[in-house]
Write the structure tokens for this entry.
Amino acid sequence: MKQSRLQLPLVSLVILTGLNLVNYLDRYVLSAVLTPIKVSLKLTDTQLGELGVAFMLGYFVTAPIFGYLGDRMSRKGLILSGVLVWCVGTCLSGFAHGFYTLICFRVLVGLGEASYGTLSPAWISDLYIPSKRNHVLSFFYSAIPVGSALGFLFGGFIALHYGWRAAFFLASVPGLFFLTVLAYINEPQRGLSDGASDDLISTLPRLGLLSAYRPLLSCPDYLRVVFGYTAQTFALGAFAFWGPTFLHRVRGLTLLDADKFFGSALVVTGLVATLLGGLWGTYWKKKRSNAYACILALSATLAIPFTLISFTALDPTIFKTAFIFAMFFIFLSTGPTNTLILETVPVGMRASAMAASIFVIHLFGDLSSPYIVGHLSDQLGDLQKAVLYLLPVALAVCALIWSLLALGFRSHTVKPAS
């Protein structure tokens, strides 16, 4: 079926970005209602951390499967199925009356989100030429802080007035709207924006699931991006999961005020930093081939001191300001990071590259970090020490790896798979 080149890219970008926003809203509603869930279901901090682990298990374990399938069959059907599954899982979370039931429903949410998170960036990359790709991917990923913040704000507000269960019920609705609209949009040809005229599905080797990912090991820049991203994700995952609870328990803010501040700071800094990082990267790339890598290294390095201050300062003005700057520098690298993940591999492996990155950053990143912080908090009896001992160190590891990436980045164009 012929499609309008003038309308398809923009419509697809808007709908997929809207779904990305809802994706993160669904994910972080849980973080906003940890305190009432703890009281209602009589859970420990360790068990609260395990809820985050459950979501990640459903998310990262299935991502390689969706990546493999997404490079070989219709991405649209996979995405639509995934969105439906995560909406159902979010709704069912509101019916949970025990720890293990809630665990199962969070796994379901993660499984549904895996298909979308793996395949949609590759879809967008096929619609926009390289000179515009970083811009549009930064726009797409700007939905992460906005959706996350809405999850905190929405979850906190609904839980206060109607209970934590209602927060999950209502959060499941927006995804169904975008699901319906996406059903009427046609999927683009793979490699369209990179001049690939052949059907890349037919050129991919007939490899098994594990063998299909082996070529990524020969992409050194891709590996450095992903390893640094893993360390950042370890810190960011725990920071996002425990942030409102830290402000409430350690800094004495009310739960609603903690959710409001964290959500507001997240949406403003995340949106501004993600878009600014994309614009800066596109402009700087005209002068330096390693511009994206330099932004990654700078953002991680600058986030470290502000993270330390936010966890140790007692004055409300100081620790709130430090929180804001820490968030800003963490999100500054969002667009360039995901652009590099897609552009340092062959065109025909973009879904696989995104899937592999999702698998690695969550397996070694935020799969365990919320649980580790919660467990360490129980052992020490101090949430402040738990976050202080772990998160700045993870950011330092990220800064080191991405600095090595920037220093050794090779200017090259990765051709379509053949």
About this structure: The two ends are 25 Å apart (CA to CA). The CA atoms of residues 30 and 155 lie 7 Å apart. The mean pLDDT is 84. The chain is about 80% helix and 0% strand.
